[in-house]
Amino acid sequence: MAFPVDRPRRLRRTPAVRRLVAETRLHPADLVLPLFVKEDLAEPVPVGSMPGVQQHSLDSLRRAATDAVEAGVGGLLLFGVPAVKDAVGSGADADDGIVQQALRALRSDLGDSTVLMADLCLCEYTESGHCGPLTSSGPDATVDNDAALVRYAAVAAAQATAGADVIAPSGMMDGQVGVIRQALDAVGYADRLVLAYAAKYASAFYGPFREAAESAPSFGDRRAYQMDPPNADEALREVRSDLEEGADAVMVKPAGPYLDVVRRVAEAVDVPVAAYQVSGEMAMVEAAAANGWIAREPAILESLVGIRRAGAHTVVTYWATEVATLLRRS
Ligand code: PBG
């Protein structure tokens, strides 16, 4: 018998064969684009640490949203930066709050052609930069979990009323999904989805986002509410409790450093699983590419296909529009 018998290279011989046998595919509809919109902004402001990403004005947001939808992306995830911050994050649920304004504008531009998602958190809206009201004004203050829940319920109702299809709570407060589900049902929005940031880690990879969202904590960090990086069993418990509380889909975040968690969650549940390729993951590739240290486009596609291969159905990525456009051309 000739050696070797098994020749796996046959499956890799030409681009057409490789395309035929690919086990995982990227599709524009599986990508969600995060967008930042800032109140009272006349012109968009580039985010230095996130090449290609901007803090949008309402007008530039509308253009970026339309571009994304035309490229075929599956959904848009909105983050707001208010003009004024306070202790309880009043801008988050104000009727004329920036995300509510944005939702109404995008709904009127885009109708039902895309899925409008609203990130639900208070860190962009509180003076402290923490994800809810604080327990005290002292140096050992932390976020008051149950006071945050009361605020989250109000924000969810405001976002749904303004037209959000999906409410995506990212504050990692205990009980947040249940409270939001009840609040939505109570105001007549039983039909809106909750996409729970179920396993959101206290990650160093959020750094650039905090510039974009102006949401860096003014003291301390988020380690007392976001998950500890060494833990994965705990992620499954978080996912389970969010599903019991009524989550329709669950998210793991960040994506790249937590692909094992994505895989385990995907195997454990039968609801859609999303993964968020966060600002730092993006910034690393952009910075390396700008230095000529890495081939930008192949690295972007490889990072995204890896997240899909790990088991994520939906990938939130700042490259959504660009990659959707690329995929449509190829
Ligand atoms: C808000 C929130 C954060 C991100 C998404 N929602 C930041 C944080 O928790 O500090 C990070 C997204 C990114 O880095 O791209 N709670």
Offer a concise description of the structure.
With 330 residues, the protein is an alpha/beta fold.
* Termini separation: 41 Å
- Tell me the name of the CATH class: Alpha Beta
CATH homologous superfamily annotation: Aldolase class I
Across the major sheet, the strand order is 1-4-5-6-7-8-9-10
Global geometry: globular
Number of helices: 11
Total number of strands: 10
In terms of structural class, how would the helical and strand content be classed?
alpha/beta
Please characterize this protein's 3D structure.
It is globular, with a radius of gyration of 20 Å. Helix 2 (58-71) crosses helix 3 (98-110) and helix 4 (145-162) crosses helix 5. It is an alpha/beta fold and 330 residues long. The longest helix has 18 residues, at 145-162. It has helices spanning 15-21, 58-71, 98-110, 145-162, 176-186, 207-213, 233-244, 259-268, 279-290, 296-310, 320-329, and strands at 31-38, 45-46, 54-56, 75-81, 115-120, 166-169, 193-200, 249-253, 273-276, 314-316. Strands 1-4-5-6-7-8-9-10 form an 8-stranded parallel β-barrel, surrounded by 8 helices. The chain has 11 helices and 10 strands. Helix 3 (98-110) links the parallel strand 4 and strand 5. It has one domain: Aldolase class I (TIM Barrel, Alpha-Beta Barrel), CATH 3.20.20. Residues 119, 121, 123, 131, 170-171, 206, 209-210, 215, 222, 278-279 line the site of ligand PBG.
SSE blueprint and pairings:
Blueprint: H1 15-21, E1 31-38, E2 45-46, E3 54-56, H2 58-71, E4 75-81, H3 98-110, E5 115-120, H4 145-162, E6 166-169, H5 176-186, E7 193-200, H6 207-213, H7 233-244, E8 249-253, H8 259-268, E9 273-276, H9 279-290, H10 296-310, E10 314-316, H11 320-329
Parallel strand pairs: 1-3, 1-4, 1-10, 4-5, 5-6, 6-7, 7-8, 8-9, 9-10
Antiparallel strand pairs: 2-3
Helix pairs in contact: 2-3, 2-11, 3-4, 4-5, 8-10
The protein binds ligand PBG.
The site of ligand PBG has 13 residues, from helix 6.
